[in-house]
What we know:
Strand content: 25-35%
Helix content: under 10%
Strand order of the largest sheet: 2-1-9
Number of strands: 11
Amino acid sequence: MSDAEHPEPEFYEARFIKNTQDKTLEAEIYEGFSYGGNIDETTGFALPYFTKEVSEEIAGNHNFPKLPEHMCIRYDEAKDSYQYSFNGGTFDWEGEDIEIEGMTFHVYPIGHGIFPWGEITKSWIPVIRSQCPYCGWEHPEARDTCDECGHEVSL
């Protein structure tokens, strides 16, 4: 197939929530970049891209004081990448340039392959009545089950 049939993805600015099973943790929401259909086919997680500044914020929030050193997110300046080891695997998230409306952004795919990212879509509802503790989806009225992921909703 030709490049015309498979054009480069068009990136756009988006917000992402890092989902967690731990209900004691507050949701982490970050500004980043995505393109339509940018989902990990195995896990169903979004695959966001973040600027260096936001990547540093994510690493800072992830690297809490008692976390073993080998599980911390570290930036390797020589490789221009963030590295993370977990369950015997090593993830290497290298920097790359993307373009949006003629502007170039240097970004990092922090969490690709392991972090449970969810993209907060344009249909995000501003009036909160109930919020899913798993995916962060906000519902306009009280309900027992999340419309987005099917989990029980905290009222």
